[in-house]
Design brief:
Helix content is 73%, strand content 0%. By secondary structure, the protein is mainly alpha-helical. The longest helix has 41 residues. The chain is elongated.
Amino acid sequence: MSFAVMGMTHCRKCGSPLSDNEWGMCTRCEKEVEEERKKSETEKRNRIEKLKRKEQAEKDKILSIFYNMNEYEMKALEEFIPQIGKEYKKKATLEQIEKLKQELKELEEE
């Protein structure tokens, strides 16, 4: 009578018996896992490249607007940019305050 141990005598993925030079998974399952890993890496790389292309298109769009401005529009933009920064910081601070309020409320309920 013999005993079967997953990963030692039999493949831990499909359950088929392992040959002498195999350990953990059979060669077929190892190839499947490797193909899945390569496929997911390729998909990840494609998503990153797509995001980079989209980001570059947005940058090009903004730059084309910038290059087509006259001096009056440029001056107005210089005055407007600091206001945008202040509003963004204000919004971020308010969001943090709301988040902290929610955390305090949750702690009080416990």
